[in-house]
């Protein structure tokens, strides 16, 4: 059965609101919640960027059933992998086993802020692989010393470590990344409904590790007024059409604003379903389960109207999604 999640968009809402939305998402029947982990919003109009790990800790205490996940954290520049291992273990204990650590190679927008520069993509992939090994080692609860190409760990131990560590999902974008990271991860993360990714990731898994989950994400902009929905999607999410090749390397909201200045509301609405039509949203989301994704997180665009979406549209939408995907 396909599982449906709710996205805690740290770029468009403040920390207290995000916790309230998570509680409401659990009440409305969402299976899980994923949180972005940004130091900056993509666009100044979004206006927020609270610390995801503090928000998730609060959500872990405010909810009882909702699975939680970072979507995604970069464990290489802004965070040292030893620190990621510690806070992931802590969150797993706080949530009583409801946390999945989602990892990726990062975006310049968030990672450049610590002044360490922004490596080329091949280096970022090498760093991510090394970070994964370090996190796995530390999640054994044993003393770890590591001398690698990019990171050092000196006599470190995660003292509060859950039995079995923390499940890890890794963001992939093609066959090479599937071959490289599938043996090191438990689950696949991707933002395109590409069936070849699911197939390649599963094929590259180490034998005996079981079938991975394939966790996708898709933006929607529900609103009773279709024109208002289109306007909000354009204001908040026009950066979305740039694609990973562009979005990973732009350093500031000003850069995203310049890159998306000629994107029209109609163009945004071609890729993001806008308005009250729940069936149109279901048709768009269906590309993911048809591609073999097991988990799909919805992004309701914009803080304005977020509570209205949860109160009026979330439950009937989930009912339609579950009926269509079964």
Helix content: 40-55%
What's the number of helices?
13
Q: Termini distance?
A: 6 Å
Fourth-level CATH superfamily: Luciferase-like domain
**String of helices and strands:** EHEHEHEHHEEEHEHEHHHHHEH
CATH architecture: Alpha-Beta Barrel
**Strand order, sheet with most strands:** 1-2-3-4-7-8-9-10
Radius of gyration: 19 Å
Q: Which whole number gives the mean pLDDT?
A: 96
Class by alpha and beta content:
alpha/beta
- Which ranges are low-confidence, i.e. pLDDT below 50, for 5 or more consecutive residues? none
Task: Please tell me about this protein's structure.
It is a single chain. The protein contains 13 helices and ten strands. It has a single domain (3-325), classed as Alpha-Beta Barrel (TIM Barrel), CATH 3.20.20.30. It is an alpha/beta fold. Helix content is 43%, strand content 15%.
In short:
With 326 residues, the protein is of the alpha/beta class.
Question: How is the secondary structure organized here?
Answer:
Blueprint: E1 3-8, H1 15-28, E2 32-35, H2 52-62, E3 67-70, H3 81-94, E4 99-103, H4 108-111, H5 121-138, E5 144-147, E6 152-156, E7 168-171, H6 175-181, E8 187-189, H7 195-204, E9 214-220, H8 226-237, H9 244-247, H10 253-259, H11 265-271, H12 278-290, E10 295-300, H13 306-325
Parallel strand pairs: 1-2, 1-10, 2-3, 3-4, 4-7, 7-8, 8-9, 9-10
Antiparallel strand pairs: 5-6
Task: List key phrases describing it.
326 residues, TIM Barrel, 8-stranded parallel barrel, two-stranded antiparallel sheet
């Amino acid at each position: 059965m396909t599982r449906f999640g709710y996205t805690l968009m740290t770029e468009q809402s403040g920390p207290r609101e995000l916790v309230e939305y998570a509680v409401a998402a659990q009440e409305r029947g969402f299976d899980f919640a994923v949180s972005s982990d940004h130091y900056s919003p993509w666009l100044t109009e979004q206006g927020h960027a609270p610390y995801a790990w503090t928000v998730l800790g609060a959500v872990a205490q405010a909810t009882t059933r909702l699975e939680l996940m970072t979507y995604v954290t970069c464990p290489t520049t802004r965070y040292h992998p030893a620190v990621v291992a510690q806070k992931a273990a802590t969150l797993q204990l706080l949530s009583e086993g409801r946390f999945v650590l989602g990892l990726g190679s990062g975006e310049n927008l968030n990672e450049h802020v610590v002044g360490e520069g922004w490596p080329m993509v091949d280096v970022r992939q090498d760093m991510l692989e090394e970070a994964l090994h370090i996190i796995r080692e530390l999640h054994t609860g044993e003393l770890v010393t590591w001398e690698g190409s990019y990171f050092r760990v000196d006599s470190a131990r995660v003292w509060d470590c859950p039995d079995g560590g923390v499940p890890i999902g890794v963001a992939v974008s093609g066959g090479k990344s599937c071959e490289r990271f599938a043996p090191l991860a438990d689950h696949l993360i991707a933002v395109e409904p590409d069936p070849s990714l699911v197939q390649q990731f599963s094929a590259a898994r180490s034998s005996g590790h079981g079938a991975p989950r394939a966790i996708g994400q898709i933006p929607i902009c529900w609103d009773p007024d279709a024109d208002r929905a289109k306007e909000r999607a354009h204001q908040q999410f026009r950066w979305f059409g740039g694609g990973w090749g562009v979005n990973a390397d732009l350093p500031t909201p000003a850069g995203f604003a310049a890159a998306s200045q000629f994107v029209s509301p109609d163009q945004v609405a071609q890729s993001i379903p806008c308005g009250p039509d729940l069936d149109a949203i279901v048709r768009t989301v269906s590309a993911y389960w048809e591609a073999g994704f097991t988990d799909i997180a919805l992004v309701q665009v914009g803080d304005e109207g977020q509570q209205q979406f949860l109160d009026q549209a979330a439950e009937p939408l989930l009912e339609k999604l579950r009926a269509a995907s079964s």
